[in-house]
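Usage

Read records sequentially. Each one opens with the input sequence:
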Amino acid sequence: MKNRVAMVFGATGLIGSEVVRLLLASEAYDEVHAVVRRDPEIEDDKLRLHLTDFSDLASFQLPMNVTDVFCCLGTTLKTAGSKEAFYAIDFQLAYDLTRLAREAGAEQFLMVSSIGAAAGSSNSYLKVKGELEEAVRTLAFPSTKVFRPSLLLGERQEQRFAEGIAASVLPRLSFLFKGPLRKYRPIEGSAVARALVAAALEGGNGFSILQGDEIADRAG
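and closes with the structure output:
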């Protein structure tokens, strides 16, 4: 496999920051581009930062040599402040950046979604995630891989009270998540990042969805 060039959206979040670290450590990648609102204060010869407030994507130019795109963007309704603001980030911004990457010639797209994502869901969060999955599918990357983890564990820069409570309780009940329920088992954000990078290096064709248990298996 030729050496690759990665682009990471959401590079300062729980999963995205670990994806960047893994890509920088991988000999398979010559360059790692990170699209960010603020400087992540990482120094590496392979890292290329693209600082933007995302207010004017019409003038935003992506490099033409990117092979693999990792979309780790995401917020919550509470953080966004409204359903409209949440949609603007989790759907519109993610889709617009992905479309630009496809137009720039990227070959492979890997996206973090959520367990239960479905465009027809009555849950606003899952509905938006499902709509994004369907939208990026129409962009027809040679390879698209959607990751649907369950509850994410790990230290976030923003504290999420409900998730914090769940994260302290559910891991103790992991013995319940067996068989068909295994895909609902909580998973470390770092494990999702490992699975993303491993799947990118495997390559492949077409559109595929990986549930929580499959993500854990890929993470090793």
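Summary fields computed downstream for this record:
- DSSP finds seven helices and nine strands in the chain.
- Strands lie at 4-9, 29-36, 47-51, 68-71, 108-112, 143-148, 152-153, 187-188, 206-211.
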